[in-house]
Amino acid sequence: MRVLAFAASRRASSLNRRLIHLAAEIAGAKGADVDLAEFGEFEMPIYDGDVDHDSGLPRGALELKRRVIAADALIIATPEYNYSISGALKNAVDWVSRARPMPWRGKSLYLLSASPSAMGGIRGLWQTRIPFEGCGALVFPDMFALPHAHEAFDENGRLKDHALAERLEKELSGFVRLAEAYADVIAPPERRSAINKALEEQTDIQPAAE
Ligand SMILES: Cc1cc2nc3c(=O)[nH]c(=O)nc-3n(C[C@H](O)[C@H](O)[C@H](O)COP(=O)(O)O)c2cc1C
Predict the structure, then answer these.
(1) Following DSSP, what letter does each residue of the chain receive, concatenated?
(2) pLDDT in tens, 1-23
């Protein structure tokens, strides 16, 4: 089962990037084939209906669309901004939602957040569920918000707090199992062939593997 994973932050020392690296490693150990992306690969302007009408999705949105189609499931770590969803992530959801068939539909999604605050970004995750669920994604009931994230990782990128580490492992294990089962239920042969086609369509952003 293929999983697209990325952190919705471009900051060089992003805490969400650290968290997504850890989550991707755990998901891989649970049997997922993880495509770990950088949010910078999906650079796109603010949604503009005229641009959409005249020239369709911009390059970064096309690349995100292709990578979403090529995956059975998604894992996204995102900052909470002002008690809500990150504008950059919402913008990406909006652009990709303009493609048909709807790329987000039928994808399982596990959401995480990392923040230096005591809340860990959980309020933003509740807001982040909404557009994805509106677009037909199956958002995993458990979400992982990491508080005091600036001091939560050890030098190997693991969580220092054993209880939190155990919860992350358990939730990811459950998510991978659910996503595998859901992919089997929801992926008829046509979707499987769309996944394979998206995998073959290489762009200059992500050159073909040697
Ligand atoms: C515009 C803005 C708004 C923010 N709002 C919140 C917030 O509502 N809750 C919170 O926990 N942290 C908030 N933060 C702090 C972010 O959680 C923190 O900058 C975090 O490290 C960003 O994620 P990153 O490290 O992956 O880039 C905000 C930061 C910015 C720049």
Answers:
(1) -EEEEEES---TT-HHHHHHHHHHHHHHHTT-EEEE--GGGG--PPP-HHHHHHH-S-HHHHHHHHHHHT-SEEEEE---BTTB--HHHHHHHHHHHTSSS-TTTT-EEEEEEE-SSSSTTHHHHHHHHHHHHHTT-EE-S--EEETTGGGSB-TTS-BS-HHHHHHHHHHHHHHHHHHHHHHHHH--HHHHHHHHHHHH---SSSPPP-
(2) 999 999 999 999 999 999 999 99
